[in-house]
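Hey L., structure's done. Input below.
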Amino acid sequence: MYPVSALAVTFPVDTHKDSCSKPVPGLSLKEAIVAAEGTPGPDTIEFNMTFPATIVLACPLPTITESLAIAEPGPEKLTINVDNPAVFNTSQIFDINTRSKAKEGYDISSLTLDGSLARDNMDLLRVIRAAGNSYDKLTAGYVLFTALGCENSNSMHNKGDGIYYTSMTLTVKQSAFYKIRMNTAGAERVAIYSLSS
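Output:
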């Protein structure tokens, strides 16, 4: 995790519930990301709920642009997956689009990302570096990436990866990629896909 600054704020997620259109009781992961995006400085999202827990996303999370660490409690305790496969076609669980001011980078740690219900082209963690960004660090530690891709698609462009990233420094620590599968069209899903520019 990156060093704590005077402006750093920690947002405690205290509910596993999610909604596309209406607030849920407590602070959801979606709401915590929105709050962190509106707060200057490197922020942290932690989880304060009863474990083990599963956060089932009803629709995609907001894009992350500011420096952010999403940490705790451990891949055996917290799973994030999707609810509606159609909504998550060509989407991601975590979508990061870096900015030049995000100097501390991004840290996704200690949880399970599950793409079991996803359709084509879904990456569990997708990071795109913005033009002119020289601060391009992503760390994934103690993450279980599981069930990448779908077996019953007929699309000819249906790769989905554990981590998809472009032109940045990626550090993966003590993580695992589980159930990487081929679909009927023969498009391979890979654990880590790098696109350099």
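The two ends are 27 Å apart (CA to CA). The longest strand covers residues 137-148.

-- N.
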